[in-house]
Amino acid sequence: MAEPSTSPHASPHPLDGVDVDVLVIGGGIVGAGVARDAAMRGLRTALVEQRDFAFGTSSRSSRLLHGGIRYLAQGRIGLVREASGEKAVLHRIAPHLCAPLAFVFPTRTGTPWTRWKLGLGVKLYDVLAAGSNLGASQVLGVDELRGLLPTLDPRRLTGAVRYFDAQTNDARLVIDTLRSATRHGARVANYTRFVDAERRGDRWRVTCERVGADGGAVAGTPRVELTATHIVNAAGPWSPHIPHSGTRLRPTKGVHLVIDRERLPVPDAVVMAEGDRILFALPWGDRVVLGTTDTDYDGSLDSPTCDAADMDYVLRVANATFPGVMLTDNDVISTWAGLRPLVADPHGRPSDISRRHEITSPEPGWIDVTGGKLTTYRLMAAETVDRLTDTPCRTADEALLPSADVVASGSGVLPPPVSHELVQHYCRHEWATHLADVMERRTSWRRYHHDAASIAEQVAAWMAEELVWSADRIAAELRAARGNAN
Ligand SMILES: Cc1cc2nc3c(=O)[nH]c(=O)nc-3n(C[C@H](O)[C@H](O)[C@H](O)COP(=O)(O)OP(=O)(O)OC[C@H]3O[C@@H](n4cnc5c(N)ncnc54)[C@H](O)[C@@H]3O)c2cc1C
Predict the structure, then answer these.
(1) CA of 158 to the centre of ligand 1 (A)
(2) Which of 138, 285, 308, 484 is the most exposed place for a label (fewest CB within 10 A)?
């Protein structure tokens, strides 16, 4: 079934004049999860996203559904148990976006990562998943490890542990969650920015504006006005800047690099330790994703980039782990950078800041929901909507989408083949309005393909047919999509 069309540039705006029980600000995974949950519990729900859905952190993560082996080392057992439970739920409700992935974590003398400690850790990891982990962990000897990863640095190796988490596709998880939300009656609009709200009696009068591909307000279009009983601020790293918000965050940046798998032929994901930090080499079809970093950030929220120092650092750690491979900048096919919306903690190193989530209500009818992880979004949404209604949550029980819808959208962990039919589908049923919406968030083609520039030209031509673009518009979309590459 087609989702209702909510193209924000249609006139009048699809949300103008509506009255809802709950308005969600932010179309990242948390906002999408809240919208789905609220709609499933019978609340009249609307969601606004200032750019494209998943424009923010939720298309820039490491794409893992994980309990968090690192948090175990930090003693955060509750967080690991919670995330492990959610990993199992997502495997049940959205198997197309939860592919079990084995991780090999080499252990060495003279490092904090000893084999006996990690061996106990991974057993506890399985136990915390309450028997529903996606595979059983193992402890490996040196010979077995070297058989598996012959290019690994052999010095001080004592063996490895192998444990299971899952790989997802963060942006597709957002889009599919929104498609599910709209099936349950939610109304959602991208390229629509929440500007302000005024409390009148027990309701909010809300003002939004239409936004173009560059993030600026569309000149000459009227403001969008609606009313809502409750507002949920799920604006991720932008959350403190939303009027009425009571949140304080300490954003940190993380980057990823994509290289050819032929250059680093890893059969499983590999944990690359650097002191007490860990990075990953994650197999992704014919590619490997390397990441990530964790550094304090005070630049533009709209366009964090992977700079030369970030790239050098990640390549240096990968080359130290696999010394014969000698990766250079020339091996990098694409990069992305994202900001973690971490709940403020002015003390300590960025990687030590808690990944816990926080749900607060600074004034009547207003809820801020921040922090957490992609993995725990459904739980965050459930706890948020519990504050709005007594109707029980059903999001863990119902499949995210019927399988026919999954097939129609090519949704999955890996990018779908480039096709005219899919591009039409994204324009007609998945709110794709700009070239980057398709190249980045519906498909990941920009990140995956060596010839992404020529694919972008083809996709722009297909979108032009569908959305009636002029030659100038096509050129502008190609320029904007290039500018979005980070
Ligand atoms: C490098 C990195 C790696 C990560 N890896 C993982 C991982 O592997 N697994 C995991 O579980 N978690 C991971 N995370 C964490 C996870 O990605 C985030 O916790 C999650 O995506 C945050 O989602 P969100 O919806 O809160 O924020 P966002 O996805 O940023 O969504 C907020 C949205 O609000 C919109 N917005 C802002 N202002 C307005 C406005 N005025 N009006 C309308 N809309 C507005 C923004 O455009 C944005 O799209 C990672 C994070 C980073 C940075």
Answers:
(1) 38
(2) 308
Cα(425) to ligand 1 centroid in Å equals 25
Q: Residues near 143 by Cβ (< 8 Å), separated by ≥ 6? A: none
Q: Output the CA 213–ligand 1 centroid distance in Å.
A: 19
Q: What is the pLDDT of residues 185-224, one digit of tens each?
A: 999 999 999 999 999 999 999 999 999 988 999 988 999 9
Q: Is 231 helix (H, G, I), strand (E, B) or coil?
A: strand
The predicted-structure confidence for 92-111, as pLDDT tens digits, reads as follows 999 999 999 999 999 999 99
Q: Answer whether 106 contacts ligand 1 (Cβ < 6 A).
A: no
| Token pair 């589908």: residue | 425
Q: Any idea which residue has 């952190």 for tokens?
A: 57
User: What's the first-to-final CA gap in the chain, in angstroms?
Assistant: 35
* CA-closest residue to ligand 1 atom 33: 26
Cβ neighbours for 272, distance < 8 A, ≥ 6 positions apart:
278, 279, 280, 281, 317, 318, 320, 321
CA 287, CA 327: separation in Å to the nearest integer? Answer: 14
